[in-house]
Amino acid sequence: MFNVDRRTFIQTIAAGGALLAAGKPAFSAEMAHRAASEATPDFKPDVEIELAAAPGELPLLSGATTHVWQFKGKAVRGDPSSFQMLPGSALPVIHVRNGQKLRIHFANHLDEDSIVHWHGLHLPHRMDGHPMYAIRPGQRFVYEFRVDNRAGTYWFHPHPHGRTGEQVYRGLAGLFIVSDDEEKAAALPSAEFDLAWVLQDRLFDRNNQLVYARNMMERMQGFLGDRVLINGQADFVQPVGTTAYRVRLLNGSNSRIYKLAWDDGRPLTVIGNDGGLLERPLQRPYVTLAPAERVELWMDFSDRSVGDQITLRSLPFNAGMSMMGGSAMANGSAFPVLRVRVDRKLAKPRALPAKLSNISRYRLEDAVNRISPRTFSPAMGMGQVSLNGRRFDKMDEVAENEIVKLNTLEVWELANDASMMMMAHPIHVHNLQFQVVQRKADPRFAGAYETLGAGFIDEGWKDVVLVMPGERVKLLMKFTDYTGLYLYHCHILEHEDMGMMRNYLVQA
Ligand SMILES: [Cu+2]
Predict the structure, then answer these.
(1) Ligand 1 geometric centre to CA of 216 (Å)
(2) CATH number of 191-344: 3.30.70.100, 2.60.40.420, 1.10.3720.10, 3.40.50.300?
């Protein structure tokens, strides 16, 4: 192994593609560890956080406590409220402003490798939590970056290759909330009127212990629980007053899709999604929320009475799957998600703003490859998964059609029509927020599409998009600021762990 200093190492990573072409290893795990185990003296953070992943015990159900893995931490510099737990929950929330400089000391107290990915953030390659940086038990990884995302509901979770699904499932996830001046100008409900709900399904055994993917079928279809936890809590009830709330929802489930609607048939008012606020509010009869997607809702309870209870449900849908496992609550089953209880009278809220934010639309005709979109096909069959016929099995492998140029706008077409086994895949692209410009449904799966399609929130900025069976979805995305390797993958975490994930390389 050759010896490199930190700077050379970073350049090496940035030039990963060139080295690959020369047939040399672009890095080694040892180099990655050494490069990231210490803080940089000349980086002056506004906020500094200590974050650890560790085993723990939680009273999730009545009776025995549940063994979990948890993120724990605290802000050691800057505003102490930069790191908090969701009320009554073991899920953390990092709150920062756009432009702030962050240093996060991540310590791995698990007895297996881990690394943290900041989902939705635009970061240098080395800060993105690529699995090549997974650290061993007892080791630390220091993240240093400037927040460069518009206000929105992002999140963080482990990303070690092959182990992401289980680590998230056992409890490792948190919200990463960014605020900015544009959001402030929208004057949305804040503080106690700004709520967050993290939706995750779990399966428990008779001793209240978590059960995870026991066989190939449970991995192929994506692992499903039969019990929905909100903010890590069973039978979650949200107390509210008779006023308006901003509610941020994250689907933190490994593979469950939710079709969210109120039980009294009132429409949902959507104000934001993955990459922050929409330009203006939208009304939908229901909202489809695939794994890793976020949606922000405006919920006005001002015409309700104290004592009212309203249930948010997941409605039945046809998941369009060509195979079904034996899970107790399949994707597409109907179930209650949570209950809202009106428990106090409050002053009438301010009105929902007509304009929320500014979004400049990319134009298809400006894409450098508008004539021939890059096509990516997720596929499954014979106990295997793939993307364009390839799997993630080498940390730095990148194919010819996975190399893009810095500062270009591209159109990518996700084509879910080349698989032996059909199912919907939520595809996530690291490093950027994209725009969804076109969906082409497949008439063979019209039934599935019609039961979910009206709930897609394709407006605004996205980093995950659900691609239905047979469907082709076109995205516009721009690669700015950073060169290096980034991932794109299915966010059904079992698919990701099986290798439905690939690198793409941004080259200068
Ligand atoms: Cu998938």
Answers:
(1) 14
(2) 2.60.40.420
